[in-house]
Amino acid sequence: GDSVTQMEGPVTLSEEAFLTINCTYTATGYPSLFWYVQYPGEGLQLLLKATKADDKGSNKGFEATYRKETTSFHLEKGSVQVSDSAVYFCALSDTLTGGGNKLTFGTGTQLKVEL
Amino acid sequence: NAGVMQNPRHLVRRRGQEARLRCSPMKGHSHVYWYRQLPEEGLKFMVYLQKENIIDESGMPKERFSAEFPKEGPSILRIQQVVRGDSAAYFCASSPQTGASGDQPQHFGDGTRLSIL
Q1: CB contact under 8 A, B45 and A42
Q2: What's the confidence (pLDDT) of residue B28?
Q3: pLDDT at B21 over 60
Q4: What residue of B is the nearest CA neighbor of A42?
């Protein structure tokens, strides 16, 4: 079945450091790929997405490129802020009968940014 | 536009009781999904519903768990005879119905934290 593997956390960085969170996937077909962010006590918020190979999703300084050849969707940001501290989830979607889609998530990577 | 609304935010039950979790999707969204997040883990898909229909329940435990999305009112996730292992955060998500649903993002509620004593 489908699966998503993320690098384990926590990842601790100083403010303005460069961020990479690795994500690889296993899937049949051609899924869409997502990064979601979860702040403490809250639900998941969509950060960015990519729907086909070589697409680059970007939002709020974060970006990730859909790499079919390496089955990867690594999240990057050039300069992190304390406010970026959260748990980041990589996910892929699988189309379901009825027109919906099921998300398969990685286990999440906690990011802590310090001054 | 109000987002996905879940209630209660926190629910405490004793073993053997029933837990009812509610979810109102975003306005205009006809697809509802339930996910479970165990401590220190990612979210796991449980069930996908449209109005009055369960479309895919491949992630639901075979016993004690049920879900509905009636014509009127919120979607309900019901857990009967709860056990300690049911303690988790339960998230609801919704999305609109479109022709190419595979890339439609799901919008999540803030979740219900269920604790079993």
Answers
A1: no
A2: 86
A3: yes
A4: B110
